[in-house]
Amino acid sequence: MNEWCGWPVVDDSTTWESAQQILTEAELSDGLPLVPPTKKRLDAMIAGVANRADSLGMMPPMFGDITPEAVAYQCVIAGCVPAELSVVLAAAQALLEPDFNLLGIATTTGSAAVALCVHGPIARTLGINALTNAIGPGTRANACIGRALQLSLRNIGGARSDTGDMATMGQPAKYTLCFAERDEGPFPSFTERHGLGKDASAITVMGISGTAEVLPGDGEGATPEAILDPVAAGMRAEIVMSGQSRKKDRGEQVLLLPLELAEKIARHDGWDLKRVQHYLFDKGGDVASSPEAIHPIVTGGAGYKMAYLPIWGGGSQTVLRKL
């Protein structure tokens, strides 16, 4: 049997069942079925990529070598199409930023996981969902891109259960969590507020403890305060639940805000992004290092349900990378 970066390459004639057994025995499986990595699929995934064997860094916790070839293999078995490799490759490199603290996220007994947000035209080109079920099931691009990143952490980084990944409980986001920021909305885009421009294609990786649904205080959020007060309360509660109350330093906060609620907030005079951030910072009482460290991101479908993505309490900073 041929190999690719030390991993098995199966023949076109290999049965599905045999391919699954081969990949499982090679400890490459996350428990879900994997796309058989044939030479044809691997060559198509890596086609046009220069310096495909060059090292782009060593990925914790076991410090495997990130190369385009290694990430391409994960993209194939995760079900990605070739155009998605650049996103997964950029995200894998972003995880290596020291402030992201991948070693801590990968090895903690807590439930930390990596979330991936895709911004700008690349999200539209690849069909990454930013509407209904944005962080749920139903869109191949979201599922497969997020899964390829998680498989990179597992198979390149070595974060396997009882080896590198010591999570007591774990969480479903360890399979996949990838979504896109919506293009429309009353607030500056995430890339614009970080100096990359309104329409920049980019990715953001986040080390999160989970997801929590948040509803406006009056059901439909007639005022900005009614929308944001439960968010601030949730952030305060997470500080306690995660044990961060024992620490002096605070990090970042991420809020996924549906378009309807974002527009409701913005219809009130003076309620721009800066005011939203300052309100949550002041109302929450020491939930972030600064107002600017609170990140509302407009995404999701119709409705009044928000999603709070608490950054892992062990310490992690979001990392934004332009594509």
User: Any idea what the shape is?
Assistant: globular
Question: What is the spatial order of strands in the main beta sheet?
Answer: 6-5-7-12
In whole angstroms, the N-to-C terminal distance is 36 Å
The share of residues in extended strands comes to 5-15%
- Report the sheet with the most strands, covering strand number, pairing sense and barrel closure: 4 strands, mixed
Order of helices and strands: EEHHEEHHHEHHEHEEHEHHEEE
Q: How does the helix and strand content classify structurally?
A: alpha+beta
Q: Figure out the total of helices.
A: 11
Rg estimate, integer Å: 20 Å
Overall residue-averaged pLDDT value:
96
The number of strands is 12
Identify low-pLDDT runs.
none
Instruction: Give the fraction of residues assigned to helices.
Output: 25-40%
Detailed description of the structure:
There is one protein chain. The protein has 323 residues and is an alpha+beta fold. The protein folds into two domains: 2-206, no CATH class; 210-322, 2-Layer Sandwich (hypothetical protein PF0899 fold). Helices cover 34% and strands 15% of the residues. It has eleven helices and twelve strands. The strands form four sheets. It has a four-stranded mixed sheet. β1 (2-4) and β2 form a beta hairpin. α2 (39-46) packs across α3 (68-78) and α3 (68-78) packs across α7 (140-156). It starts with a strand and ends with a strand. The model has no long low-confidence stretch (mean pLDDT 96).
